[in-house]
């Protein structure tokens, strides 16, 4: 999918410009694809949020660095960009390519903040900014007004799941972990079993920190195994106030 064309420029002009309509639309299409897989409603972009996200992306690219609290000494600093940085998922990669990375979320294994925000009930509207194919990107997302109302959300989610969304060339969900998040169900003492073909599979389970996109969340790490396309994996959670049990059916979409 095309990353689109960036109309801005880096230091010294520091013009945030904009990402072309196809680049923004393609990134949004991927966000909504993954939310659809998780049985969540689509989100839309909002122009004022896009402006913040675009200024944020310029700052990340100009400084070849990532920060949610960029100092005023940064190249191409602006209030709009700083506001965007504080309220965005930020990436050193372009907008379209970064979407799957947020869902895998390497480096954030204690929180899965990027993933949980994308899968949040209250997500939307959002802002999307990018400095193009070789640039950086920001997804402005804090302060959403969505009302999905799901009791819990898992990743990978119940139902058919493309094996291509399980990982990229750098990492996979076997490395970072599966997850379940909820606003109302306390998950701290959850015990998780995963079976395939009737055989139990080893997993490590730990609560996730913070309130990123949900009040409660757990990380479920496959211990010594990877899912295979064509197989079904049954997940059951006990030790909590609700019943959570579902099947994930991995398929090869190529």
TrEMBL record:
InterPro entries associated with the record: CAP_dom (IPR014044), CAP_sf (IPR035940)
Positions of the SCP domain: 28-130
A Pfam short name: CAP
Origin superkingdom: Bacteria
Gene3D superfamilies per UniProt: CAP
CDD domains: CAP_bacterial
Protein name, UniProt field: Secreted protein
């Amino acid at each position: 999918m095309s990353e689109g064309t960036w109309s801005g420029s880096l230091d010294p002009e520091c013009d945030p410009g904009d990402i072309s309509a196809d680049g923004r639309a393609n990134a949004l299409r991927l966000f909504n694809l993954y939310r659809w897989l998780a049985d969540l409603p689509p989100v839309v972009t909002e122009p004022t949020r896009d402006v913040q996200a675009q200024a944020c992306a310029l700052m990340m690219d100009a400084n070849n660095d990532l920060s949610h609290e960029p100092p005023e000494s940064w190249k191409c600093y602006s209030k709009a960009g700083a506001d965007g940085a504080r309220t965005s998922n930020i990436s050193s990669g372009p907008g379209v390519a970064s979407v799957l990375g947020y869902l895998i979320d390497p480096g954030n294994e204690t929180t899965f903040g990027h993933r949980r925000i994308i899968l949040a009930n209250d997500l939307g509207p959002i802002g999307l900014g990018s400095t193009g194919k070789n640039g950086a990107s920001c997804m402005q997302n804090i302060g959403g007004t969505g009302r999905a109302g799901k009791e819990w959300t898992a990743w990978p989610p119940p139902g058919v799941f493309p094996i291509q969304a399980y990982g990229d060339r750098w990492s996979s969900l076997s490395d970072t972990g599966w997850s379940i998040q909820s606003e109302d169900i306390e998950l701290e003492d959850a015990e998780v079993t995963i079976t395939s073909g009737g055989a139990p599979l080893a997993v490590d389970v730990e609560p996730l920190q913070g309130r990123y996109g949900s009040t409660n969340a757990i990380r479920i790490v496959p211990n010594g195994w990877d899912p295979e396309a064509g197989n079904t994996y049954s997940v059951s959670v006990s030790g909590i106030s609700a019943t959570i049990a579902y099947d994930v059916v991995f398929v090869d979409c190529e």
